[in-house]
Design brief:
The protein is of the alpha/beta class. It has three domains: 2-85, Roll (Ubiquitin-like (UB roll)); 89-181, Translation factors (Elongation Factor Tu (Ef-tu), domain 3, Beta Barrel); 194-315, Nucleotide-binding domain of ferredoxin-NADP reductase (FNR) module (Rossmann fold). The protein is 20% helix and 32% strand. The strands form three sheets. The protein has a six-stranded antiparallel β-sheet. Strands 15-14-13-12-16-17 form a six-stranded parallel β-sheet, with helices on both faces. A five-stranded mixed β-sheet has the order 2-1-5-3-4. The protein is globular, with a radius of gyration of 20 Å. The two termini are 25 Å apart. It binds flavin-adenine dinucleotide. Flavin-adenine dinucleotide is lined by residues 33-34, 38-39, 124, 136-139, 151-154, 156, 158-162, 182, 201, 204, 314, 316-321.
């Protein structure tokens, strides 16, 4: 059994228990969201003791070297002294500068940062609400060369951060940003076929990646798939149509059920992507959005011959009910 020291308190971690679970039991847990090592909302710092490797998976090297780790993924096997991640050094102050309704479900949020914020289009950033440190990850649709950051936020019924960002926070409201993180950004040979597939706001990083690829002179074929259960989950039609005028870009929009607007097909994303004759051994893929679809498609692409290292994905894992 490992002993955790945090904010002057000492807590026994039960066998197999994560730092997050142990501190929650003690009533002093840090903010968290996905609880599956994906979103990096529960970042903490180890000040003494050694961390299991899984606790630092997916973190950038500089953060690992500082002893930063994910509380949800850290199941300590020996005593550990932990502290809150140092907000000042890891975070950038930003302001909400714009809000634009893109559909009944999705709102475009623009943010300006007070100091330079380095990122690649398609990565995600942790948005932190200063009043209560509520933390949620959102993907970046903007390019670093653009003056403001752009997020696409889907309104989740009863969702704390999405409701606040979409409907409540006034323009000019400050937020803190941490990151960027995630493996979804353009990284390919100029001639390589690119396959991008996402559901709902999984489109945000994919649009960023396509625009970045085109900006960098990508010449290979680019196929962008946007899917939703129903047509109400699709958005950004005009911008996708504009992207599709580029000679090597093809955009496919699909729904699973209900009315299908012009230009939209009714078929599962997995069947569309797998049935489109892409050269999967040569291509690179990015998958974002609903975790079930991302995992299914990743598995199917791999089984169809795409090397795992050619597939980048960000499943949008959400906080469990009541967390
Ligand atoms: C790497 C990453 C990138 C992300 N990028 C984006 C993005 O670009 N745009 C975006 O809109 N979201 C994105 N998300 C999801 C986002 O971080 C939040 O989880 C989402 O906005 C809901 O947060 P909330 O605080 O509003 O809801 P919460 O208060 O966390 O949730 C309220 C309730 O709704 C449930 N819930 C939340 N979301 C869903 C859902 N999709 N389906 C069913 N039930 C749900 C929760 O389980 C909970 O019971 C991303 C997630 C990850 C991990």
């Amino acid at each position: 059994m490992a002993r955790l020291t945090y904010r002057g308190g000492s807590f026994e971690a039960e066998d197999g228990e994560s730092v997050l679970e142990c501190l929650e039991r003690a009533g002093c847990a840090p903010p968290s969201s996905c609880r599956s090592g994906q979103c990096q909302s529960c970042l903490m710092k180890a000040t003494s003791g050694s961390l299991p490797p899984a606790a630092q998976q997916g973190l950038k090297d500089a953060w690992r070297a500082q002893g930063l780790f994910l509380a949800c993924a850290c199941r300590p096997t020996e005593d550990l002294e932990v502290a809150d991640a140092d907000g000042g050094a890891l975070e950038v102050a930003a302001t909400i500068t714009g809000r634009e309704v893109l559909s009944d479900e999705v709102v475009r949020i623009r943010l300006a940062t007070g100091s330079p914020f380095e990122y690649r289009a398609g990565q995600f950033v942790s948005v932190i609400r200063p009043s209560d440190r509520l933390t949620r990850p959102y993907s970046l649709a903007s390019l670093p060369s653009e003056p403001q950051l752009e997020l696409h936020v889907r309104r989740v019924p009863g969702g704390r951060m999405s409701a606040w960002l979409c409907d409540e926070a006034p323009i000019g409201e400050p937020v803190q940003l941490r990151g960027p993180a995630g493996e979804c950004f353009y990284l390919a040979g100029e001639e390589q076929p690119l396959v991008l597939a996402g559901t709902s706001t999984g489109l945000a990083p994919l649009v960023g990646i396509v625009r970045d690829a085109l900006d960098r002179g990508h010449r290979g074929p680019i196929a962008l798939y946007h899917g939703s259960v129903r047509a109400s989950g699709l958005y950004l039609a005009d911008e996708l149509d504009t992207l599709a005028t580029h000679p090597n870009v093809r955009v496919v929009r699909s729904v699973l059920e209900g009315p299908t607007p012009d230009g939209v097909v009714q078929e599962g994303l997995d069947a569309l992507v797998l049935g489109s004759g892409h050269d999967l051994k040569a291509a690179r893929a990015w998958l974002c959005g609903a975790p079930e679809l991302v995992r299914l498609l990743k598995k199917k692409l791999f089984l169809a011959g795409m090397p795992l290292k050619a597939i980048a994905s960000d499943p949008f894992v959400v906080a469990p009910a009541g967390a």
